[in-house]
Write a structure and sequence with these properties.
seven-stranded mixed beta barrel; alpha+beta; 215 residues; three-stranded antiparallel β-sheet
C-alpha cells in the first residue's frame, strides 16, 4: 500500500490553562513546515514536546494522523480541521492508519518508520479544541492515529510517498489496540500476540487479564 504525506507539522508553543505541563506550555498546536524535515530516533527535529513523561521517546517519536479521519471530524464538529490540528507530525492521505498493523514498517522519504501504538487522548487535547467531551467522542470514534518509532533516520517532506514495506503476520492493528484498552476488553488477549507493541502496553494487558509476564 502506498499513500503520501500531505504535510509535516511542527509545534507552535502554546501557553494556556489547559496545558498539562507544569510550565503551562503545550506543543499540541502543530502546523505545516516548509521544505524537508529531519526525523531522528528521539523525534522530529524542530518539534516541541512539553510533557516528556507521557509524550515523546523512542516508541512515540513520530505521530501520524490521516486526512480522511480529520475530514470526518471537520464534518462532525462543523469546523475546519487543518493538518496538524490533532497534534500530528505527519498528516497522511491514502494510508489506513487505524488499520495499520503494530510493527509494520513505513518508508517515508529517506526515513524508515515502524508503527508502535495508538494515541490516547488527554485533557490537553480537549482543552486545545475547546470541546469538553472530546475524549469521550474520540474514544467512540476509535480512529486514534498511530505513533511510530524511527528505525532509520532521514528526512521527510510534503508529497513524499508512504510505502508499507513490511507487515507482521499477527495482524493486530492500531484500532484493535485502542479498542482493547478503552472499550472492548475482550480484545486484550490479542495484544499479547504483537511483539512490537511497547512493553508497557503488553504489561497493562497482562495485568488486566491476570496473566503472568515473562520471567
Amino acid at each position: 500500500m502506498t499513500g503520501r504525506l500531505v504535510s509535516v507539522n511542527l509545534a507552535v508553543i502554546t501557553e494556556a490553562e489547559w496545558a498539562g505541563d507544569a510550565s503551562g506550555r503545550s506543543g499540541i498546536d502543530k502546523r505545516p513546515a516548509a521544505g524537508r524535515v529531519p526525523v531522528r530516533v528521539d523525534g522530529v527535529v524542530g518539534d516541541f514536546i512539553a510533557e516528556r513523561a507521557v509524550h515523546g521517546g523512542p516508541d512515540q517519536a513520530v505521530y501520524a494522523y490521516g486526512v480522511e479521519d480529520a475530514e470526518w471530524w471537520a464534518a462532525e464538529l462543523d469546523r475546519a480541521v487543518p493538518p496538524g490540528r490533532f497534534g500530528e507530525n505527519l498528516s497522511t492521505l491514502g494510508v489506513d492508519v487505524t488499520g495499520a498493523v503494530i510493527g509494520e514498517e513505513w518508508a517515508v522519504g529517506s526515513a524508515l518508520l515502524q508503527v508502535t501504538k495508538p494515541r490516547t487522548p488527554c485533557r490537553t487535547f480537549a482543552g486545545f479544541w475547546g470541546v469538553p467531551d472530546l475524549i469521550k467522542r474520540f474514544g467512540a470514534r476509535a480512529a486514534p492515529g498511530a505513533y511510530l518509532r524511527v528505525l532509520r533516520e532521514g528526512e521527510v517532506g510534503a508529497d513524499d510517498p508512504v510505502e508499507v514495506r513490511e507487515r507482521p503476520a499477527h495482524g493486530v492493528t492500531v484500532g484493535e489496540v485502542f479498542r482493547a484498552l478503552h472499550r472492548e476488553p475482550e480484545l486484550l488477549p490479542r495484544l499479547l500476540d504483537a511483539p512490537d507493541l511497547p512493553e508497557s502496553i503488553r504489561e497493562k494487558a497482562r495485568r488486566r487479564l491476570g496473566v503472568a509476564g515473562p520471567r
